[in-house]
Amino acid sequence: MSAKAPAVEYGQADQDWSAADYARHAGFVVERAADLIDWLAPRPGERVLDLGCGDGTMSLRLLARDTAAIGVDASPAMVAAALEQGIEAMVLDGHDLADGTAGTDYDAVFSNAALHWMKQDPDAVIAGVRTALCPGGRFVAEFGGAGNVAPIRAALRAEAEERGRDADTLDPWFFPDAAEYRARLEEAGFVVERLETFERPTPLPGDIADWLTTLAWPFVTAFAAGPERNGYVSDVVERLRPELADANGHWYAPYLRLRFIARKPEQD
Ligand code: BEZ
Q1: Which CATH number belongs to the domain containing residue 117 in this structure?
Q2: Which of 84, 113, 122, 266 has the fewest other C-beta atoms within 10 Å?
Q3: What is the largest CA-CA distance in the chain?
């Protein structure tokens, strides 16, 4: 009898983020966007709301710049991790900022790699940010723009459809183009001071299966843990290998970022 390799088990986390997996497999998300804080140009003592703070790693950098940073995130697991890092943080969906629970009169709302998860109503998110800001306050953010991780998204969708799932229902992401997002900001009364999109091809620290199970968990956890999930992830990986892995098995992800600075007018 030939020895059989043990089956790979993918994505044991349930319907929420795993802060430990995020730190292990996606630490580059903060590193690669570190200069977004230069766009924010925080002044000591400013009150900054970190929208979609995740495990608080970026908030820590804001604190290191002498701001009073407070984080909000929809994920209880991520907020728990942020609190463990000593960040003042609370569980709040970005769609609910307008209710004032997270406070108002912020000098700035800052956000990295989070707005694309707020797909349900991007205009409600922008309106909530406006409510949270003081007059003259700024909204400085980076997230995925149109075409972000396009082959990965296409493979996740195609393999889901092949298994009889509705890809639109599973797909959690909002990746707008520059013109669309500028129009949304302006429609909400922001003055857009700077808005850019740019490519950021990013070498991954490990196998792309780690990226999928950590960051594409809404797709992955739609399949039952065990053979169904393992088959789904393996087939997505094999679809992507020719395009995103090199001959040595090193993977990269074709990130495309949308960054902006938008200001709430002093007077409405
Ligand atoms: C991003 O930061 O662009 C991203 C993160 C998770 C899933 C998809 C995209």
Answers
A1: 3.40.50.150
A2: 266
A3: 78
